[in-house]
Write a structure and sequence with these properties.
homodimer, mainly alpha, Tetracycline Repressor, domain 2, 10 helices, 0% strand, DNA-binding
Chain lengths: 193, 193
DNA sequence: GTCTATAGGCTGATAGAC
DNA sequence: GTCTATCAGCCTATAGAC
């Protein structure tokens, strides 16, 4: 055959990476298929050899993006639950994350669009989200706390991005960061596991 | 004159109310001017006698919706800070709120679109949001806690709506509700002001 | 102030050359 | 597998009748 066996899969990966960045920056619905594909360097015609519809792309995008987020967590160098969580809070609740949605978490920019998507998309989303929540629950020793943390993180970046004034953005970020760190400290006051 | 003096203003109010519901349910960008106006019972031609552009409508919508939210808070019957906050948490972190975005808070469905809007829209948004944050700060005796609460509330509804399974939606809602109520109890353990 | 009609551009998706 | 060319349908915004 003309192409090595993994070539199509590799193209698909590149396509998901590029269109993920565009969708997170400009919105998924607002980005036409042409626009999403231009970032990947191909045309809309080529798109349909990889996905049956735009909705199928959204599904693949969610899977790819949430997997990437879990992979970032896996690269966290800290061992104790306290250090591990501190590191992730600082990484997420960060002005750089506010200013660069294209390189950040998929949840703040696209959750509202997922909420309006069809059932297959939302079911995949729930399954992938729960995987992340379970990882967090292990570190927090609480499934409930894990949900609360995720909600706080996502809401903070979402609102900070809608605010134009950088000082106010920082106030929001720092407020949430201290709120979560206080909640952690209260649960393990001595730093013990 | 043919119309009573306040007629146009009244029409405008009705138009904002109806298009607010549509925008919160289907998204602002995804709802065409025709669609937004159909809900108000007029056509796209009439729209441009009230607003110079679709962006101007978004600005007016944000002002109208956040004012409506503050008016809801003003109707809270409780006096003590603890009861007042409990009441609002129960009202916001509610399955009904998850299932009926058209009647709910504007932040979860539209914040991501506001973040991508032009400067005048975002500046108005910040000013209106801070008004609400200040009201909450009075009740919480902390500007910082007020920001953290808002972020938690918005993130929770946003994520719960993207999740299809009602049991999981409830788990997310209850997790955030307990998290916030615990934070409140810790700050005023005896229930004192 | 509201309507209908219309303009020019962009959308998601398909057909066929290579 | 990717390209160009193309479809019908939607978008924002405007013009002019009433």
């Amino acid at each position: 055959m003309r192409y090595p066996p993994g070539k199509k899969e590799q193209n698909r990966k590149q396509l998901l990476l590029a269109s993920g960045r565009t969708a997170k920056r400009d919105g998924f619905a607002a980005s036409g298929v042409d626009g999403l594909m231009k970032a990947a360097g191909v045309t809309s015609g080529a798109f349909y050899s990889h996905f049956s519809s735009k909705s199928a792309l959204l599904k693949a995008l969610i899977e790819s993006e949430l997997l990437a987020s879990r992979n970032m967590w896996a690269g966290n160098p800290h061992q104790t639950a306290e250090d591990w969580l501190d590191f992730e809070l600082d990484r997420y609740l960060n002005l750089g994350h506010v200013q660069h949605p294209e390189a950040g978490c998929v949840l703040p920019p696209l959750a509202a669009e997922i909420a309006r998507a069809d059932a297959p998309v939302r079911e995949l989303f729930e399954a992938e989200l729960v995987k992340g929540q379970q990882i967090l629950a292990q570190r927090l020793h609480s499934e409930e706390m894990a949900w609360a943390f995720i909600c706080q993180l996502v809401g903070t970046i979402l609102l900070a991005r809608a605010i134009p004034n950088e000082a106010t953005q920082n106030a929001v970020l720092e407020a949430s960061k201290r709120f979560l760190k206080d909640a952690l400290a209260q649960r393990s006051p001595t730093g013990a596991e």
